[in-house]
């Protein structure tokens, strides 16, 4: 019984409630979690081809954003918001654009060639490109 519980909790660690997406014109097929974090924290601002990165994310109260922050940044949404408050106060930057829904994220990524975003794992992403996160 204990072994079954450990197995099921391990499966939960590897299932993701989100997909990272980019514009269909983006040449990337995979990216590390660390790179994704760098793009969303705007520590890295250009793709490999020199194009400007335009991150977009869901509102802070989204459960998908909570999972994304834990999975990619290894921090809570609150900790990431604190990072941005400090950056804004010191004049070092502004947070990514926020959208209310998966549909709005997809529309943004579709219309911005350098965009990167995330949506819930069950979302129809046929109009954008899913990028594989490797560790």
Note down, in words, how this protein is organized.
The chain is α/β, with parallel strands linked by helices. It has one domain (17-134): D-Maltodextrin-Binding Protein, domain 2. It contains five helices and seven strands. The protein has a five-stranded mixed β-sheet. A two-stranded parallel ribbon has the order 2-7.
Short overview:
With 135 residues, this protein is α/β, with parallel strands linked by helices. The chain contains five helices and seven strands; from the N terminus they run αββαβααβαβββ. The protein has one domain (17-134): D-Maltodextrin-Binding Protein, domain 2, CATH 3.40.190.10.
Features:
alpha/beta; 5 helices; 41% helix; disordered N terminus
Average of per-residue pLDDT values: 90
The named CATH superfamily:
Periplasmic binding protein-like II
Number of DSSP-assigned strands: 7
Query: What level of helicity do the residues show?
Result: 40-55%
The CATH class designation is Alpha Beta
Q: Please state the overall shape, judged from the principal axes of the Cα atoms.
A: globular
Helix count equals 5
Sketch the topology as an H/E string, one letter per element. HEEHEHHEHEEE
Looking at the structure, the CATH topology is D-Maltodextrin-Binding Protein, domain 2
Overall tally of structural domains? 1
Strand arrangement across the biggest beta sheet: 4-3-5-1-6
Spatial separation of the terminal alpha carbons: 31 Å
Sheet/helix structural class: alpha/beta
Low-confidence parts, pLDDT < 50 over ≥5 residues? Answer: 1-14
Tell me the CATH architecture.
3-Layer(aba) Sandwich
Largest sheet: 5 strands, mixed
Q: Percent of residues in beta strands? A: 15-25%
In angstroms, what is the radius of gyration? Answer: 15 Å
């Amino acid at each position: 019984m204990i072994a079954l519980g450990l197995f099921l909790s391990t499966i939960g660690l590897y299932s993701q409630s989100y997909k990272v997406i980019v514009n269909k014109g983006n040449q990337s097929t995979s990216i590390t979690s660390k790179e994704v974090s760098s793009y969303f924290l705007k520590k890295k601002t250009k793709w490999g081809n020199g194009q400007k990165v335009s991150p977009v994310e869901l509102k802070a109260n989204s459960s998908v954003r909570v999972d994304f922050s834990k999975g990619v940044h290894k921090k809570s949404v609150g900790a990431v918001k604190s990072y941005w408050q400090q950056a804004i106060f010191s004049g070092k930057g502004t947070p990514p654009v926020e959208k209310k829904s998966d549909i709005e994220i997809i529309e943004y990524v579709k219309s911005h060639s350098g965009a990167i975003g995330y949506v819930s794992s069950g979302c129809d992403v046929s109009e954008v490109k899913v990028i594989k996160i490797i560790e």
